[in-house]
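Summary: Need help interpreting a holo structure output

Steps to reproduce:
1. Submit the protein chain below together with the SMILES for calcium ion.
2. Request a joint structure prediction with the ligand placed.
3. Inspect the structure token block that comes back.

Expected: a single structure record containing both the chain and the bound molecule.
Actual: see attached output.

Input attached:
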Amino acid sequence: MAKTHPNLRFAAAALVLLSVTWCSQQARHQSASSTGQRSYSAPRINEPPTIDGRLDDEAWSTAPWSEDFVDIRGEGHPTPEFRTRVKMLWGDRGLYIGAELEEPHVWATLTERDSVIFHDPDFELFVDPDFDGLRYYELEINALGTEWDLLLPRRYTEGGEADHDWTMVGLRTAVHVDGTINDPADTDRGWSVEIELPWSAVEQAVPSAGSSWRINFSRVEWSVHVEDGRYVKDPAPPDEPHPEENWVWSPQGLIDMHQPETWGRVVFLDPP
Ligand SMILES: [Ca+2]
Ligand SMILES: [Ca+2]
Ligand SMILES: [Ca+2]
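--- attached output ---
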């Protein structure tokens, strides 16, 4: 089965929720952008950051932190227990994304590319450069740096079938763990992700200054306990379809990332 988290299983409920959410969002954000969702102005850089997972490059100092991530459902839902935030930059080669994930227990298990990475705690990127909700792109990465990239011709709820074999050609990612991975004996500070997404990797030319893409980020977090010195996922509560936490940059209003119209946007700033 293609990725059904968090989507297909609740298409009907999602439609109802979507309409309710849409109305409330229209009321709440009518003075904001057309979607009422997040917006990030990415500085243009000449000297790209070194893709090593550490966000201490000179380039990153020019980019502000995003808002802290929130529950995917948005207002009225619990504030995430751990902070997640991102930065973005752009240059001749591509879009740069730096993410910082506070996490006292860094763990990951999946090492094979194109595994279903959200079965581990992960960081996820979604982009729809032309805002049409069609042919959009997703990348998931865990704390071991294992990637899953996929192309979505259309959303699952409209019969879309993800192409998992598709590859973001030229993609470069790196993860830095601030602490230890898979070691419950200590407390970690978190992990960070650094991404160079070449324009061509998502079938785009270099954007013109002032233009924007639809984009969102998600973090999946599983509650765990320790058994025999290893992290083990807590059992899912009965009848709980989403035992994981879904924390996102631009709230979706429901547990479904495959709704590009409620993603945020990245605006490609003019050079200084
Ligand atoms: Ca770096
Ligand atoms: Ca598109
Ligand atoms: Ca792939």
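--- end attachment ---

Reviewer comment: The longest strand covers residues 212-221. The pocket of calcium ion (ligand 2) is lined by residues 128, 130, 132, 134-136 (CB under 6 Å).
Status: needs-info
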